[in-house]
User: Fold this.
Amino acid sequence: MQTLFDENGMLNIADIVGNHPSYRAIMEDGVVTDRELSDQAEATIASLRRLQEICTPEQQAAILEAISEMSVLMAVYHRHELQSLNQ
Assistant:
C-alpha cells in the first residue's frame, strides 16, 4: 500500500500522483484534453462522495481539513511560482 509519507517522513504526493492510474492514463500522450479534465473532475467528485458515505462525521472533518490545507498549499505554491516568473 502506498503511504502519504516516504521512509524519510517527507510528503509523498509526487510519487502518489505520478503512479496513479488516472494520471498515467491522462498523461500518456502528454496532452490534457477538455474531456480528460472533465472526466477527472467527475472521478474526483465520485471519490469524495464515496468518502462522505463511508466516513463518520469526525472522519469527514479530518478529511476536509486535510484537503483544505493541501488545496491552500497548492494555491499558494502556484501563486509563488507566478510571482517568481514576474520578477
About this structure: The mean pLDDT is 93. Residues 44 and 50 are 10 Å apart (CA to CA).
